[in-house]
């Protein structure tokens, strides 16, 4: 028997859902059951990761998701705490999309705007630890190979980590409400040959700009990454949104900085 595994933290993995979402649901379940009480402190990220047998980066993304939903709060230097007045016991945020039928291109345009801004803010506000976690998530994305389920899991975790690193709560909440609507499309996109490797390389470019604290470059790199799949949508207008930089695609020379970290 594995001495580190905590039976209370055992996860029910679902191939159709990203791992951080499964972790977040488990923590929410334990809160609703009274295992973690309002105002109480959670085990630290390392302890949760060991108990669930998952990467610490996945735990952090899950905790950040619950913070955005006002289930948890982080006290710098102390850890993660359950909010004293938790929201109603629901695992999903209320959606203003419910009952509405927006075009895929409309949602994707909103995603581009939110993620471009998130990358820009993350370059300014993210901690060094958050940026390194983002880089590790991209490495996991590369290691997913051709496994569509794992590619989706790691892609969602990478992008969500950048959004959380913006430290802008309304932005985070809005993003979480729209991104689920794009999940099936994202899953199918990874069946196309060459997409996984291209995704990893474009993610890596975003990471370089984040590491060098280049806010404008991070936004442009993210917009460029999302422009290609947007252009492939079938419901866009004759003159679609163009978010890409029209100049030469050459990264700047960051003086006194190492672009590879």
TrEMBL record:
Using the record's annotation, list all stretches that form the HTH gntR-type domain.
17-85
Which positions make up the signal peptide?
Answer: none
Q: Where is this region: Disordered?
A: 236-261
Q: Looking at the record's lineage, which domain of life comes first?
A: Bacteria
Read off the InterPro entries from this record: GntR_C (IPR011711), TF_FadR/GntR_C (IPR008920), Tscrpt_reg_HTH_GntR (IPR000524), WH-like_DNA-bd_sf (IPR036388), WH_DNA-bd_sf (IPR036390)
Coiled coil (UniProt feature): none
What is this protein called in UniProt?
A: FadR family transcriptional regulator
Name the species this protein comes from: Pseudonocardia alaniniphila
């Amino acid at each position: 028997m594995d001495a580190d595994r905590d039976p209370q933290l055992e996860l029910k993995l679902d191939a159709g859902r990203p791992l951080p979402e499964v972790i977040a649901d488990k923590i929410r379940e334990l809160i609703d059951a009274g295992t973690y009480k309002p105002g109480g402190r959670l085990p630290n990220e390392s302890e949760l990761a060991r108990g669930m047998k998952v990467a610490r980066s996945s735990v952090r993304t899950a905790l950040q998701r619950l913070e955005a939903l006002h289930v948890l709060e982080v006290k710098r230097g102390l850890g993660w705490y359950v909010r004293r007045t938790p929201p109603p016991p629901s695992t999903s945020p209320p959606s203003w999309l419910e009952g509405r039928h927006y075009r895929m291109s409309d949602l994707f345009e909103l995603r581009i705007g939110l993620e471009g801004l998130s990358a820009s803010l993350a370059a300014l506000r993210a901690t060094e630890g958050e940026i390194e976690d983002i880089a590790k998530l991209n490495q996991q994305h590369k290691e997913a190979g051709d496994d569509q389920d794992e590619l989706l899991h790691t892609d969602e975790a990478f992008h969500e980590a950048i959004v959380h690193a913006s430290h802008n709560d309304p932005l985070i909440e809005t993003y979480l409400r729209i991104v689920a609507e794009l999940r099936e499309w994202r899953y199918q996109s990874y069946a196309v040959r060459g997409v996984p490797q291209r995704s990893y390389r474009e993610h890596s470019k975003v990471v370089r700009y984040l590491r060098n604290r280049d806010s404008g470059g991070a936004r442009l790199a993210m917009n460029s990454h999302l422009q290609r799949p947007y252009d492939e949508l079938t419901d866009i207008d004759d003159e679609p949104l163009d978010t890409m930089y029209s100049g030469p695609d050459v990264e700047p020379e960051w003086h006194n900085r190492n672009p590879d970290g």
